[in-house]
Specification:
By secondary structure, this protein is of the alpha+beta class. It is built from six helices and five strands; from the N terminus they run αβαβααβαβαβ. The strands form two sheets. The protein has a three-stranded mixed beta sheet with strand order 3-4-5, with no helix packed on it. It has a two-stranded antiparallel ribbon with strand order 1-2. The longest helix is centred in the middle third of the chain and has 19 residues.
Length: 183
């Protein structure tokens, strides 16, 4: 049985709905350039949730009819495509469907806000607790804020090793303000 060719309109829909990023949960790798060489191109692979053939990974009696159906396709990087096809029991149909839906919903939410929406400025204040430095994950902060409170891309970070919460106003004025990157 010859595999059907996925129509260009379906591929385009897949690229748009996934924002050109791998839909494997937790990967999110951009597939329009090579992360190592930084060369641009199409580094995506179109993966079938229900295998393209009955004998393929996650193949069923529906394989032939769903071969080119958008709802049965995921945009993946090469590593993640190999992972799901080499371990079909670890990545069953329903899991992959939920990942596809989560990813596409996230992209829809992130792109549906108008440009002129009021954005929040995040202030991260980090002090040592005893002799321990307390790390703050900037990406986790951004994710906690979004989508209800989208952030500006600047943000402010204050890091103090020797902080006295009972300090004088003059001591408070000497705090070190740093720009917050990638928020």
């Amino acid at each position: 049985m010859a595999r059907k060719s996925i129509p260009e309109a379906v591929k385009l829909q897949l690229w748009v709905k996934s924002a050109g990023r791998c839909e494997f949960k937790g990967c999110n790798t951009p597939v329009w350039y090579n992360g190592l060489t930084l060369s641009e191109g199409n580094f995506a692979e179109v993966a079938h949730i229900i295998g393209s053939s009955k004998d393929g990974p996650r193949g069923t009696d529906q394989s032939k009819e769903l071969q080119i159906d958008f709802s049965n396709l995921m945009l993946l990087c090469q590593r993640c495509h190999k992972e799901i096809d080499d371990h079909p029991d670890k990545y069953p149909i329903e899991l992959l469907r939920s990942w596809k839906q989560e990813h596409e919903n996230r992209i829809e939410i992130q792109t549906s806000y108008p440009e002129d929406i009021h954005k929040s400025t995040v202030l991260l204040f980090s002090v040592n607790i005893g002799d321990r430095t307390v790390p703050i994950n900037v990406e986790a902060v951004r994710n906690a804020m979004f989508p209800k409170f989208p952030t500006d891309i600047k943000g402010i970070k204050i890091e103090e090793r020797d902080f006295d919460r009972l300090g004088t106003p003059e001591q408070w004025e000497t705090l070190h303000f740093l720009p917050l990157q990638h928020l």
